[in-house]
Design a protein that fits this description.
Layout (H helix, E strand, L loop, with lengths): L1 H39 L4 E11 L20 E11 L4 E13 L2 H9 L17 E3 L3 E13 L1 E2 L7 E16 L2 E6 L4 E6 L2 E19 L2 E12 L2 E17 L10 E16 L2 E12 L1
Antiparallel strand pairs: 1-2, 1-14, 2-3, 3-5, 4-8, 5-7, 6-7, 7-10, 8-9, 9-12, 10-11, 11-14, 12-13
């Protein structure tokens, strides 16, 4: 009886060892097959992220503070997250979320205010104020877009470099920056302010990418594109220009209440229109699946 049990456990142990050995072999074979399949798989889906500078163009970059539809925007920043899918060997569609930020040109605003005559003098004569200081303010735009692209190998079928021209269209939600600037001197004080605003408008993006595939599923790329909106309408923007009159009661105390005479001011409210544009360059990374 004892010998039979020993023989039973011996056979059972050999079977268990055989099962473990076979499982290891099968696992290694599956890993090898999966790795081989992954190397030759055709990935049709891709998620990409990119960041880089944004350069305003046209009216958006025009620094004329009192011009029609001028933004006085400086070079800023843009970022993009996009998903695309190939529907055949060359063409596909893309969905993208895009963001752009550009500061207003404070120096230009300060110089123009110093050169501007305000109708606060006797008999509506112009009065000038110096030493203007403007606060930082920035343009913001967020867009959702969809469109089409082509995926073209640069040096042949086995190329690791692919060129992708793209056309996207959609809608942007843009923010008009508030403006606040002050002029302080020994005998006067003045300030200009305007409220911010929000608006929606159609947008178009034309661009292209140069992709380099590190592996079948990962690539890095350089992208350049032009982003442009239709006129964004910002409703009921308030503008006010205020100044002391007759000098300051207490020297160095820059408030309207410290005016020797009744403070002066001009107020208004109007809609503003602005196109948002950007000539962008970005670098990014893509993951295919």
């Amino acid at each position: 009886m004892l010998l039979q049990r020993l023989f039973y456990f011996y056979r059972r142990g050999r079977t268990l060892l055989l099962i473990i050995f076979l499982m290891k072999k099968v696992s290694m074979l599956l890993v090898l097959m999966f790795s081989t399949a992954l190397s030759y798989a055709q990935f049709n889906n891709k998620i990409s992220v990119s960041f880089g500078p944004s350069f305003p163009v046209g009216k958006f970059a025009d620094t004329d503070l009192f011009g029609d539809g001028t933004g006085a925007a400086k070079a800023g920043f843009s970022g993009m997250i996009n998903f695309n899918r190939k529907v055949n060997e060359v063409f596909g569609y893309e969905i993208a979320a895009y963001g752009q930020m550009n500061y207003r040109d404070r120096k230009s605003i300060e110089e123009q205010l110093a050169a501007t005559g305000f109708p606060f003098g006797p008999g509506n004569l112009q009065r000038y104020y110096s030493s203007w200081k403007a606060e930082n303010s920035k343009w913001m735009a967020i867009a959702l877009m969809a469109g089409f692209f082509a995926d073209i190998p640069v040096t042949g079928e086995d190329s690791k470099f692919f060129f992708q021209p793209k056309v996207l269209a959609g809608v942007t939600y843009a923010g008009l920056p508030a403006l606040y600037a002050e002029s302080k001197s020994d005998t006067a004080y003045a300030f200009v302010k305007s409220t911010n605003g929000k608006g929606i408008a159609p947008v178009l993006m034309l661009g292209a990418e140069l992709n380099y595939y590190i592996s079948p599923s990962v690539s890095i790329f350089f992208r350049t594109d032009f982003f442009g909106s239709n006129h964004v309408r910002f409703k009921d923007v308030e503008l006010g220009i205020y100044a002391t009159d007759g000098g300051l009661v207490i020297p160095g105390l820059h408030t309207l209440q410290n005016s020797k005479e009744t403070p002066l001011g001009i107020e208004g409210r109007a809609d503003e229109k602005q196109t948002i544009t950007g000539l962008n360059t970005r670098i990014g990374i893509s993951f295919s699946f």
